[in-house]
Specification:
Largest sheet: 6 strands, antiparallel
Oligomer: single chain
Structural class: alpha+beta
Radius of gyration: 15 Å
Order of helices and strands: EHEEEHEEEHHE
Shape: globular
């Protein structure tokens, strides 16, 4: 199954946090053909009394179930000392399951497609690096969705 995840960080050297998370994903036996977008900087969503974020999107193939994948992502977050102090607050690492094949998932712990991804330039821009022509649940391609968003706060950081 193709899966796409969003990666984000705004604490404790965010670029290094993403690099460590990407390394952990690369080393995991159940994740194959990993590709990672460029890394972008963006303003925080929610409380503005926090540092800017660093974001990317990764794509890979996996036989893990959605919940098994969520558990893996959360274990990587925990290994990098993720603390959930407040909603949309600062974090060392945030790994969000954006898409799991074409599946729609509504579980207490997991909603896929990610409920806010279509409105977030810091998700759609890096997603367009990997799959510009992919059709989204709203019937638009990633490129078409990107054209609907204000991405003026995005700053290219580096190519992965």
């Amino acid at each position: 199954m193709h899966a796409y995840i969003g990666l984000g960080s705004n604490l404790e050297n965010p670029v290094a946090q993403l690099d460590r998370a990407i390394d952990a994903l690369k080393k995991h036996d159940d994740l194959k053909n990993l590709r990672v977008s460029s890394i972008y900087g963006s303003k925080p969503v929610g409380p503005q009394d926090q540092p800017d974020y660093i974001n990317a999107v990764a794509k890979f193939d996996t036989a893990l179930s959605p919940i098994e994948l969520l558990d893996l992502l959360q274990s990587i977050e925990q290994s990098q000392r993720r603390v959930r102090e407040r909603h949309w607050g600062p974090r060392t690492l945030d790994l969000d399951l954006l898409l799991y094949g074409q599946q729609t998932i509504q579980l207490p712990r997991l909603t896929v497609p990610h409920p806010f991804m279509l409105e977030r330039g810091f998700v759609i821009k890096p997603l367009s690096d990997l799959a510009p022509d992919m059709l989204l649940a709203n019937g638009k391609t990633v490129t078409e969705q990107l054209q609907q968003l204000d991405t003026s706060d995005l700053v290219f950081i580096k190519e992965e």
